Amino acid sequence: MTEDEGANLQLPRGQAWRHSRIAATKANFAPPPELATWYRLESVRLDNGDALYQDGDSVQVTTKWTPPSAFEGLALATIAAIFGDLRAGLGNGQFYSPDKRSKTWAGKVIVKASGKSPDDAAKILRAWIKNGALIEDTCENDHREEVACVTLSETKAREILGALYPKPEADE
Fold first, then answer.
1. Number of other residues whose CB lies within 10 A of the CB of residue 141
2. Phi and psi (nearest 5°) for 80?
């Protein structure tokens, strides 16, 4: 694992060297770091000490390691607020973009509401697009150009939020 991958996966600085992954392909064909299967070197004491060698021996073992989830600590109330902002869009019938390079990137809504890093926001956004909570589409921008956008799937939002899902206005 590189130091940059370690930082992206929220490892303490200087701990990336303990982690590795096995890939049967070239590195540029491997899955992104957050989707890879990672292994960690850990020290295990053998408890074989005696009067002369009290500390005993330790060996290194490899254990499977799972990076922390970008969703960790993200309350349902915060998700409800994010979904509300994404549902409302930018106004004038415009919606947020799935493209991180865009001024209207949907991840900015996640960062603002949750305090998550832009990298975590990108992971959350990818997960919601993958599970269908957000739908990638094309919309017109304020210059009447077709641009990529994301819209909220109300069915998935209701499924995720449960009792926190706001009733649509037509049902009130």
1. 16
2. -60, -40
Buried-exposed string 100-138: b where 16+ CB fall within 10 A, e elsewhere: eebebbbbbbbbebbebeebbbbbbbbebeeeebbeeee
Confidence tier at 171 by pLDDT (50, 70, 90): very low
60-64 long-range contacts, CB within 8 A, separation 24+ = 63/39, 64/37, 64/38, 64/39, 64/40
Q: 42-80 burial string, b = 16+ CB within 10 Å, else e?
A: eeeeeeeeeeeeeeeeeeeeeeebebeebeeebeeeebb
Q: Which of 45, 5, 8 is nearest to 21 (CA)?
A: 5
Global pTM value: 0.70
**What are the residue ranges spanned by the domains of the chain?**
3-65, 76-171
pLDDT of residue 170 exceeding 70, the answer is no
Fold of 76-171: Arc Repressor Mutant, subunit A (1.10.10)
User: Alpha helices, DSSP H only, in the chain?
Assistant: 3-8, 76-88, 107-114, 118-130, 154-161
